[in-house]
Amino acid sequence: MLEALGLEPDVEAVYRLLLAQPEWSVQQIAEQLDVESGRVRAALDVLAELHLLQRDTEGKQLLPVSPDVGLGILVNRHDLELRSRLRRLESARASVAAIVDQYGGKRHAPEIVQQLHGVETVRRRLEQLAETARKECLSFFPGGAQRPDTMESSKPLDQMALERGVSLRTLYQDSIRNDPDTYEYVRWLSTLGAETRTVPTLPMLMVLVDREVALVPIDPEDGRQGALEIRSRGVVEVLHVLFTRFWDSGMPWHEQDGPDTVGLSRRERELMYLLASGHTDEAIAKKLGVSLRTVRRTVSGLMARLEARSRFEAGVLAARAGWLS
Q1: Strands 136-141, 167-173: parallel, antiparallel or unpaired by DSSP?
Q2: Which own/partner contact pairs does 73-79 have at CB distance under 8 Å and 24+ positions apart?
Q3: Which of 123, 109, 112 lies closest to 227 in space, CA to CA?
Q4: End-of-domain residue from the set 75, 91, 109
Q5: Does the pLDDT at position 109 exceed 70?
Q6: Does residue 259 lie within any of the structural domains?
Q7: Is 215 exposed, middle or buried (0-12, 13-18, 19+ CB in 10 A)?
Q8: Distance of CA 285 to CAs 18, 158, 258, 291, Å?
Q9: Do residues 287 and 174 lie in contact, with contact meaning Cβ atoms separated by under 8 Å?
Q10: Shared domain check, 273 and 295
C-alpha cells in the first residue's frame, strides 16, 4: 500500500509491526513475519534511510517514528517531486507543440498504413495511443468476457486518459452482461466518466483515437497476426461513421435487454436473423460471443415458442411473425 512512498511490502510490514511492538528484537520480528532475520535487518536499514526510525533518548535503541510525522514528511516530499515533474512535463509538452507547429508538415507525416505484427506489438502501440490521446478514444470489443489480466492492465491507462479529459466510448457485445469481471470493470469505468454500450454483434476489434488513427486486425479471424495502424483521413472517417452507427443502436450497459413488441430480446432477434441467413450454430456462437450450448438452448426455446418442428419451418414461421424484420 505504501510502495509509492518507497516502502516495499516487507519494509511496510516491519514498520507496522514496530509501531505495535516497538520493543521487539530483530529475531522476534522475523519469527512473527516468518522471514529470515537478514530480511528484517535490510528492512530496518531502509526505514532508517527514510527517517522512519530514530534512536531513543539514551541512544541505545532504534524506535519507529510516529506515522503522522514520518509518513507525513514522505508524502509531502513525494508530492513536491511529483509537482516538479508535472511542471517539467508541461514545459516539455509546450516544446513538443512548438516543434510540431514548425516541422509537422507533410514531409514528416507518418505512413498512411503500418503493419503491427504480433499481439505484444499491438498491445504496446495501444498503450502509446492511450497515453497520447487528446480528445477521444472509441473502441469495438467483440466477443464475450474480456480477459481479467487485460482489463487490469488497462485500468491505469483508462484512468489517466479520463483524468486528462479524453472521452472514452466503448462498445461491447451483449454477452459481457453475463460475466461478473467484465461487468465490474465496466461499472468502474463508468464511475470515472467513461461511456459503455452493448450490441448483439460487432464486426471486428477496432480502436479509433482522436479521429486521426485507427487500429484494426490484419485478419479479423485471427487476432494473433497483429493489426493495421491506419492514418488515412478518408478511411478513418469511414470507420468513425461505422462506430457511430453501432453506437446509436447500442444499449447503455446499465439498462436491461427486455423483450420488444413481439417478445424477443435483442440477442434472440439477432440469433434468428443469423440462423435465417444460413449461419451454423458454431458461427452464431462466435458472432454473439456466447457458448455453443447457449445458442442451441436459445434456438430450442424459440422453436418451441413458434411451435416449429424443424429449423426450416422455424425460419418460415419467424418471418410470418415479423421476427426477422
Answers
A1: parallel
A2: 74/5, 74/6, 74/50, 75/5, 78/4, 78/5
A3: 123
A4: 109
A5: no
A6: no
A7: buried
A8: 57, 30, 21, 6
A9: no
A10: yes
Q: Please choose, from the candidates 280, 147, 144, 125, the residue with its C-alpha nearest in 3D space to the C-alpha of residue 217.
A: 125
Half-sphere exposure in the Cβ direction for 322 (13 Å, CA) = 5
User: Cell numbers of 118, please?
Assistant: 504480433
Region 135-153: mean pLDDT is 83
The torsion of the CA quartet 5, 193, 90, 74, rounded to 10 degrees, works out to -10
Distance in angstroms (rounded) separating the CA atoms of residues 276 and 105: 52
Q: Which pTM value belongs to this model?
A: 0.55
Are residue 101 and residue 30 in the same domain, yes or no? yes
Q: Are residues 190 and 237 in the same domain?
A: yes
Q: How far apart are CA 103 and CA 218, in angstroms?
A: 31
> In angstroms, what CA-CA distances link 105 with 101, 108, 110, 112, 286?
8, 6, 10, 14, 44
Packing angle between helix 292-306 and helix 311-320, nearest 10 degrees? Answer: 60
Q: Select from 306, 320, 305, 312 the least CA-distant residue to 275.
A: 312
CATH number of the domain enclosing 245: 3.30.870.10
- Cell output for 119: 499481439
Residue 106: Cβ within 10 Å count: 5
Q: How far apart are CA 58 and CA 56, in angstroms?
A: 5
Q: Which three cell numbers stand for residue 238?
A: 469511414
**What's the pLDDT score for residue 280?**
86
Domain count, the chain: 3
CATH number of 5's domain: 1.10.10.10
pLDDT level of residue 208 (50, 70, 90 thresholds):
very high
The most distant pair of C-alpha atoms in the chain lies apart, rounded to whole Å, by 95
User: 183 lies in which domain range?
Assistant: 113-252
Look-up of cell digits 422453436: 303
The pairing of strands 195-199 and 167-173 is: parallel
Tell me the pLDDT tens digit for each residue of 274-303: 887 778 888 888 888 888 888 888 888 888
